[in-house]
Structures are given as C-alpha cells and as structure tokens.
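so i finally got all the pieces together for this one. its two components total, 812 residues if u count the protein bits. some of the lines might not be protein, just check the labels. i wanna see the whole assembly predicted at once instead of chain by chain like last time, that was a mess tbh
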Amino acid sequence: MKFGKMKPHRRNRLLLVLFLVVTSGSAVGLALKALNKNINLFYSPQQIVDGQAPVGPLIRAGGMVVEGSVQRSREDLKVSFVISDLQAAAVVVQFEGILPDLFREGQGVIALGTLNTQGVFVANEVLAKHDENYMPPEVADTHKKAHKERTGE
Amino acid sequence: MIAELGHFSLIPALGLSVCLTVLPATGVYLRQANLMRLTGSLSAGLFVFVLFSIACLGNAFLTDDFSVAYVARNSNSALPVQYKISAIWGAHEGSFLLWSLVMAGWTLAVSQFSNGLTLDMRARVLSVMGALSVGFILFILLTSNPFDRILPVYPAEGSDLNPVLQDFGLIVHPPMLYMGYVGFAVPFAFAIATLTSGKLDSAWARWSRPWTNLAWSFLTVGITLGSWWAYYELGWGGWWFWDAVENASFMPWLVGTALVHSLAATEKRGVFKSWTVLLAIFAFSFSLLGAFLVRSGVLTSVHAFAVDPERGLFILAFLTLVIGGSLTLYAIKATGIKSDAGFEWTGRETLLLVNNILLIVAAGAVLLGTIYPLIYEALTDGKKISVGPPYFNTVFVPVVMLLFLVMAVAPASRWRSTPVEKFFKEQLLPGGGSFAVVAILVFFLAARFEPVVVLVVGVAAWIVVNLIRDLIGKVRHKSNKIVALFRQPVSYYGMLLGHLGIAISITGVCLTVYFSEEKDVRMAPGDVVELSGYEVKFKGVKKVRGPNYLADRGEIEITRARQPVVILFPEKRFYQAAQNMMTEADIDPGLFRDLYVALGDPIDDTAWAVRVQYKPFVRWVWFGGLFIGLGGIVTLIDRRYRAVRMRTSAAVETVGAMP
C-alpha cells in the first residue's frame, strides 16, 4: 500500500505510532547509554584490598570509619580516614572539603570517588546518613559477609 | 490509656472502610438507593475515627508519654511544642497514620462536595476509595502501629526528633505532599468507577478534573516546599539531589501533569478518553510505588525511614493488587471507546498528546534510574550500584527541553487544525525575538556567555511571550477590553499562572546551575574570601544555647565594594538528647541572588571550615513552583464546575427516586 493513498486518519495514526516508536526508542537508547556511563559500582574494603576494584573509574566504597583514624590538615580542608569492614580489611580514604554532620568515627559511611595506584581511595563525596541507627544497606551487607567468612573458616 | 484508645479507634475505622467498600457497591448491584446513600455517613465516620486516632497520638507527644515507643523514639521533653506536633509525622508509623487521615479526608470531601454526581457514580467512586482505606488502615494495624508501648520499664526521656526535621519545613512539607499523593486516589477512583459502569463519556473528565487539579496543586507545592527545605536545612545549599525519595514524589507529579492536560483535552474536546483513564490509574500507581520505594528500604536514600521487609512486602502486595487489578479492568472495559471529535496532526490536540508522551517518557526515565540499582542487583547476583545525578541530567534535560518547546508554541495553536504556514510566520518574531533578547541580556549582564542559558531562558521567555499574545488575542476585538478580561473563564487564568510558573522555575534552575559560585575554605577570625564580587569576612565563633541544643554560632560579615551588605550567623548545633550534630546554615535571601554560608568542622582552636555560596535566581525555582500550584487551585473556582453541579443535581433526584 502506498503511503500517499492512505486514508487521512490512517496516515495520522501511522504517523502517531511512528512518532511514539521513535521518541520512546530514542529515549530508551539515550537512557541506557547514560545509565551505562553513570552507574557507580560498590566495592567493600575487602574487595578493594584484594584488588578487585578498578583503578580509575568512579566507584563507591563503604565501611565503618575506624576509631582514631581521622587526620585533618591544619592548613586546608584535606582530611583522611580509614574505612574497614570490622574485620581485617582497611582502606585509606582521602577527601578535601566539608564532611557531613553525621560523619563520625565508628559510623558507617559511603564514599564516591576513584581508587589510585597506591590503593588510596580519593573521594569526591562522602555520605553519612540522617539516622545514626541506620546503616547503608551496602555496608551492612559487607559486614554480614565478612562476619560469615570469618566464622565459617 | 489514651494511646490505646487511639489504637482501638483504628478498628472501627477499618470496619467502616470495609462497609464503605462493600455496601454502596452492593447498592449499585442491587439498585438499592438506600445502600448507595450510605456513602456520606460512612465517609464521615471513617474520617472521625482516624482523626481521633491521630489526635490520641498527638496527645501522647504533647504529654511526653515516653511509654509509647514511637514517642520515645521521636520526641523529648525539651522539644519545642510545634515540633512535638510535627513529630507525629516525623517517622514511618505516624506518617502513615497521617497518610490514612489524608485518605479519609479526601474520601469525606468527595462524599460531601460531589452533588453533581449521579448517586450511582458517587457510590462507585466512594466504594473504590473505601477499599484503598481498608488497605492503608490494615497496613498500620498489621505492620506499623504507632501506639506500641514499651512496658513495663519505659525510658524517662525520649531520644528526640531527628534535628534536621526540627524545622518549619517539616511541619508543612509532609502534609502537603500527602495531600497530593493520596489526592490522586480521587481521579483513580473516578477512573475505576467509570470503567466498571461502562459509561466512559466526557462527564467523568468534568467530574474528576477539579479534584485532579487540586491534588496536583498540593503535590506541586509539597515538592516545592521539600526542595526549599532541603536547600536551607540539609545545610549545603543543594535543592534537588535526584534522590530515590525525591524521585518517588516527582514521578507521580510528572504523570499527574500529563493527566491534568489530557483531562483538559478530554473534557473540552472529547478526545483521548481511554488514554486519560489509563493516566489516572498510572498517576496513583506511581504514588503507591513511591510509598513502596521509600518505606521498604530497598533503595539507599538520604531519607532514612525505619525499614522493615514485612512492610515492604505488604505494600508490594497492595501495589500489585491495585495496579494489576485496575489494568486488568482497563484491558477488559476500555476497548471500543470512540473519540467524540477527530483532529488533524496540526491541531492543538496533537501538541497535548506530544506533551503527554514527553512527560511519560520523562517519568519513565526517572523510574528507570531510580529502580535500576534493584534490577542490576537482581541480574548480577548481588552487585550493588548507585545511579548518580549525571544520568538523570543527561536523560531528563533533553526530554523536558523538547517539552518546553512544545509548551512555548502550544498557546498559538488551534484546536482541530492549525494553518501551518501562518503559524510559523507569526511565531518567527516572538520566538526569534525571545532568544535574541535573552542572548543580549546574558552577553551584557552575566559573568560569562553560556549558549545553554540562552537556549533555556530563551524558551522560557518565548513561553511567556506567547501567553501574553494569547491573552491579548482574546480581548483585542472586544469593544470593552477590561470586561472581556473578566469574561475569560477562570481556568484559563489558571493555565496562564501554571505556565508562567514553569517559565519562572526553569529560568531559576538554569541560572542558578550555571552561575552559582561555591567555595569551601578554611577561615580563621579576620580571614576574608572573595565570592562573586562580595567580600566574605569570618569574625569568629561564639557558644550559644538553644532549647534542646548547644551551638557554635559563627559571625560572618559580607560586604560589596566595602559597603556593608549583611551579617550572617550560621550555626553548628549539637543536639544533646540524640547526640547529633547539625549544620544550620544562614542565608541572605534576595529576588536575584542568595548569599549562603554554613559552618563545617572546627579545624583548630579558632579556625573553621566554612562553605560560602553565591546562588543567583535560586528563589525563582520555588516561586515558580508556587505559581504552578496556585494556577491549579485557581481552576477550581471556575464557573463551569459550579454550573455543572447545579444542572445535574436535578438528575440526582430522579436517580434517587428509583426503586
């Protein structure tokens, strides 16, 4: 059937369907492409120590801030601290800026940033949660796993 | 004892909502007008019992009854009284009680203010709303009782309300938001009632339109307040984070916006009937989905509601039932609906359809980003990811830019068909002129020339220009122009306000994103930092005491070219009961710029980490939101709806007289 000979309302419907397909198709394509570029994988301290985390791309790391590990610079806003999974693994995190209010030693945090070749996590952003009893699910999960492996040995 | 009364009064409330679900529906089935007429008293009873219940919870807060676990967790005897009241909805259990109260409130309102409805229709609508109340109240009774006691040994003091919630914003933001969320239950109920009755005519659009506009306005204002609150209270000057909980409120808003527009088309032109019904189902489904995402704890969010898998499961089951049930009903009943009027692809109807598609695509993109961590975890056997703001910005911004373009030209289009050549000729000057003027303004006034700013603000200007042209066009040929202005339907002015609000908001969003300046600096007393032409001087920190906190209060003097501008006092508060630190920023607000300062941590004895921000046009983001909400509310006083009410009340009598 030739396009030109279609009845007007048929043609309109076809145009509409085409428009729908093109719009939603390109939207989905765009969305998936953007998603692939912008997902931030989570790594536990153990995975980072074991070398499973990639060096370079933006990732997230989370764990408990080790008591007594927070060191502040006296000249600027640089700060470093150690996160652990309450077992053996520990990763040094460096950050420059203002830490969230709920950041405290002994509390769970999640940091967004990159791992450098020295195995230090350079954070662009540090998140601590509103509720002090609340633990980020990722961190809680890590602790459970670490604990299981420990007791399973 | 009073807490137990609160708990027990939910049981008759549940009973009444069951009756409200069953009796009027039975009445419809058996054609018993007496049963159908029960809706009014059942709705009133339901509302009174839920209201009594929440009042009992309020009483527990006001009398510091820490034997009630919810009160002990979320209050403290030193908590100021207004926050004791807002603490009722400060955490999961109480906020769901508020949710149920809002549901009962909407139910009561529909039963009281829908005289225009036929008795049969009113019974169907309220029966659906009753069923929803059953679900919500059951949820409280089974999984989230705010009246649980800690006995026999209860704490002498409560652990206090989360400090970030001790604020005016939290007093008003959740009730507004819930009015919106739950308000979408009304068009949903109308949609289901229409589907079951099989009479899918334009009348249902006329009935549900004012309710939808009202609910949507509440949601708009609720989201706006939430954004404003996040800006000043979370302490760091951000006003939108693409956080899961924000998305949970934004998705129903996007679908609701589509619904508001397609309802208008359905009512005015008799087109998109079945599509509108589907949107009404989707809007409410997204509200429920939001509740599920927020309360089940499946997503990491800055909003930490106490989480419990059992609750998640309940809501998921309820969600499946509501969405599955209504879509099945839709699939069975919505076939073979014919539009009253045809239209060509150049008609305004087409533009409205494009608007709808773009809004749904935008909502879909937000949904995908929000739940993608869940999908990914399921597909990769437990790998955890997060989706950051870059995703949302990349996907959302192009879609809404298209939407704004459509929005700019829509007022210049005509129903049915628009003469294309004439249309383009007429739009050349308003469109080109808007971009040109904005380009010149940005070139001379802004810190630097940004093409994207010209594009976005240019579209906003074009939107406004076309609104004005449209208004002038309506009165140009009238002999008395003032009278003609008053003769326009009120809902037309609602549309103008709403679209104007969008133009204001996108201008604010764009300018504040592109021209804000932010500095995190270490400051000792006497230090000065330069910020967008202002000099910011840190003068030191003093200790002060508040009702339930201790604070370090900084003094920061801001000058411009040595002329004093303002002195700001940001605080770092320590709430003793919960042992919580909190940043209380201080802001010098202005129509064209905010100056924002917040204290970070003390670095040594006298020096502090300080964040200073210059945020141009940031208020416009929320002004726009308020305009949009106002626009929606204004449509309610349209004469048309009142006329309909009077005309059809005669019809009610005839149906009522039926045996």
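Chain A has a mean pLDDT of 80.
The interface with chain B takes residues 8-9, 12, 15-16, 19-20, 23-24, 27, 30-31, 34-35, 37-42, 58, 60, 72, 74-77, 96-99, 101-102, 110, 112, 127, 129-132, 134, 136-138, 141 of chain A (CB under 8 Å).
anyway lmk what u think
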